[in-house]
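(Structure overview)
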Amino acid sequence: MFTGIVEAIGCLRERVGDRFRFEAAGLSEPLAVGSSIAVNGCCLTVVASGPGWWESVVVNETLQRTNLGQLERGGVVNLERPVRVEGRLDGHIVTGHIDRTGVVVNPPPDLRVTIPDGHWAHLIVKGSVAIDGVSLTVVDVSDSYFDVAVIPHTAQITTLGSCQPGDHVNLEFDVLGKYVERLMSRREA
């Protein structure tokens, strides 16, 4: 489980088939093989590591649902290690399981992102959403887009500060809201 509070910025060093090698000097401790790390909000498993780098295998399902397949060598990514049980939950509960990608309409600070078909019900004003792994609060919602306010600090320490119209971003909708929707739809049926 993650919180959506980005810990560091890293980059894609190389990709060979389904193996992605990432680099990040900002992580304070080495990543052990088998541990999880959120890359642009997507939970990946470390399969090899060394000082300042690690590799993950990225499966087709992940490539289809996320923006990781569009990453080019040197592309920057948001990074977060899992929350520790004794740690604080500063953002919101983020699983690292990306629902879909959206497209940036307006860049920060008033970030507007399209809503993929069928997902508008997962967003409410003042609810939570993770965009490229960053925990944000929804400011406005329509049937086709939603808005979040990105404060200068968040824009500076994450990749959101460089978002431009047309960029694809990873979206993870609030897991609690998804469970409520599922229960309610079953009840109505």
In short: The first strand starts at residue 8 and ends at 16. The chain has a mean pLDDT of 91.
